[in-house]
Amino acid sequence: MDIQELTSRIKSAIIILSTGNPYNIGDINFNYSEGFLSVTGWSLSGDLKYISHNSACKELCEIKILFKKMTDASKELSDFITGKNIAFILKFDYGMGAIEICSECNGVIEWNIKTS
User: If residue 94 lies in a helix (H) or strand (E), which one and from where to where?
Assistant: First the structure.
């Protein structure tokens, strides 16, 4: 996705998020409700049993880096998130749904599954 397409998608996302609906940009899902923005990505692991605290933290960091690149590329997104609580979430997609592995809000990581 080039920068022009990214900024266009971000503008669309802000409009849709403002109505309370989720929006995907690439591999990231955004959801906004009552001052709280969730930024969700999915683990690349093929099996839940191979996810460790270390690998999950690395993937959560990659979600945060990608989000930072998006805010750097779009003043509109940067303005939109001002004053909002942001949670970064890592999920595992098992084909018929997804399991939340962990989330980070305000620098605190919460674990929702037991990892190796």
Answer: none
- pLDDT one-digit tens code per residue, 38-92: 999 999 998 888 899 999 999 999 999 999 999 998 999 999 999 999 999 999 9
88 lies in a domain?
yes
In a domain, 98, yes or no: yes
| Tokens found for residue 38 | 């969730």
Helix, strand or coil for residue 7?
Answer: helix
Kindly report the pTM of this predicted structure.
0.90
Quick count: other Cβ atoms within 10 Å of Cβ 108?
8
Q: Tell me, yes or no, whether 7 lies in a domain.
A: no
How many domains, the chain? 1
